[in-house]
Design goal:
The chain is mainly α and 435 residues long. Helix content is 66%, strand content 1%. A hairpin with a 2-residue loop joins strand 1 and strand 2 (346-347).
């Protein structure tokens, strides 16, 4: 009977229920997101089925998600219906999402065996992880990598400075990086904070050294894998690959430029009356025309425009960066009309309000707890920043480029762990964290 109600079984049951609620509600992401990872993973699976590597497509985005989804796709017969691919992808995501929660539970047990269940529960209270796991996107595998990092750093915080800590930290950051290359900013922040701790900390200097080395290795591997994937064109003579960094920087120039509190999704369907979006659309059309006429790479023109704007309008740009920081932590569903919301027995405005209160209350609570941990708990200012380095890096990236809240979602595991540490310090001031 005790095994039936073990924490692992309860976590699995709660996760399954949340997946069923999200999948059965009117609020869920597009099944295949932007389509890049799905089409590329499907091509790999078909190439393996037909033993013909010429069917494999060059990577448009990061290589990690494509390979991640290609694994379950290989178990489907060739030419299966698209819905079957989605079912397999969601099941695959659910399994790895559970692994991430179990890692958080194991990490929390290092702090308090009695209240360890609270850490994965905090993660589940905000259904964003499950929400994005219901689509073929990069968020879920990056979320797993962040959970692995949280496990490694928590071992370090509880006094374990053996070289075994290097593995979870290195692989956690690397998985995040190859799934979402913008997470290289997270690795850089972790590396800098760990280096400062290595130079200044009296306790756990060996642990800080291990984290510094792990982060450096992760940065090199992530950068190498991303460059190699971007360079691979299979000799197809295809057009220039899209530079997504240039694209998000360009979008960021116009996002929140004059409409600071218009947080609708950045597309024509959601923003038909948006001045900022219309200005962006006109400029984008002009840049495409200029690129064709002058035979200049579109990405070069975008970088030039971004540089000129920041130099000529620094205050406006910094203001938009600040708005993006706030907007990245406030989640608003724009893909469904308010009247179409439906969750369990609620619908319309009631369901809309309930969903947004649940999502954002949990997120705000965790951020407040992080503030308490770094400002009020003795010896945890820098160590707390090290722990939340992956989340902080994602926030910095969206602040400087372009904001979609899903870009910061993979950082939730470390935010939940920081909140758990703060709550444990309030309840048990002598919790097993060595300052």
């Amino acid at each position: 009977m005790k095994r039936i109600f073990s924490p692992f079984v309860i976590i699995a049951a709660l996760t399954l229920c949340e997946f069923l609620v999200v999948c059965g509600s009117s609020v869920h992401p597009k099944p295949f997101s932007d389509g890049y990872f799905h089409s590329e993973a499907k091509a790999i699976a078909e190439a393996i089925h037909h033993l013909n590597l010429n069917e494999v497509r060059p990577f448009e985005h990061a290589p990690g998600p494509t390979i991640y989804y290609a694994i379950p796709y290989c178990f489907l017969p060739a030419n299966s219906p698209e819905t079957h691919y989605w079912y397999v992808a969601v099941g695959w995501n659910a399994a790895w999402f559970l692994v991430a929660l179990f890692l958080l539970y194991r990490a929390a047990r290092l702090i308090s065996t009695r209240y360890a269940f609270a850490c994965p529960l905090l993660t589940l209270l905000s259904p964003l992880g499950v929400y994005y796991s219901c689509g073929v996107a990069a968020e879920t595998p990056a979320f797993v990598g962040c959970s692995l990092f949280a496990y490694g750093v928590t071992k370090l915080l509880t006094g374990n400075t053996r070289p075994s800590v290097l593995g979870p930290v290195f692989w956690g950051l690397t998985i995040m990086g190859i799934m979402r290359p913008n997470a290289i900013v997270s690795s850089i922040i972790v590396c800098l904070v760990a280096a400062i701790l290595w130079a200044r900390a009296f306790a756990k200097k060996d642990g800080a050294r291990l984290v510094t080395i792990s982060a450096l290795l992760s940065i090199m591997l992530t950068a190498g894998a991303t460059i190699a994937a971007r360079s691979w064109d299979r000799g197809s003579g295809a057009e220039e690959k899209q530079d997504f960094l240039a694209q998000v920087l360009f979008q960021g120039v116009y996002q929140f430029r004059t409409e600071h509190w218009d947080w609708r999704h950045w597309n024509e369907a959601s923003r038909p009356d948006s001045t900022d979006f219309q200005d962006s659309d006109r400029e984008n059309t002009a840049l495409h025309r200029q690129s064709e006429q002058a035979n200049v790479a579109l990405s070069e023109l975008r970088y030039r425009l971004v540089g000129n704007y920041i130099r000529e309008h620094p205050y406006q740009w910094l203001t938009a960066c600040g708005v993006r920081v706030i907007a990245s932590q406030i989640f608003i569903v724009n893909s469904v009309e308010k009247s179409s919301f439906r969750v369990l027995f609620l619908s319309g405005t009631a369901a809309y309000c309930l969903i947004h209160v649940i999502i954002n209350a949990t997120q705000i609570l965790m951020i407040i707890a992080l503030g308490y941990l770094t400002l009020k708990v003795k010896g945890m200012r820098m160590w707390g920043l090290l722990l939340v380095g992956p989340w902080l890096g994602l926030v910095v990236f969206v602040a400087l480029t372009y904001c979609e809240p899903r870009y910061t979602m993979p950082g939730q595991p470390v935010l939940a762990m920081a909140a758990f540490l703060a709550l444990m310090h309030i309840r048990e001031p002598r919790a097993r964290v060595e300052s």
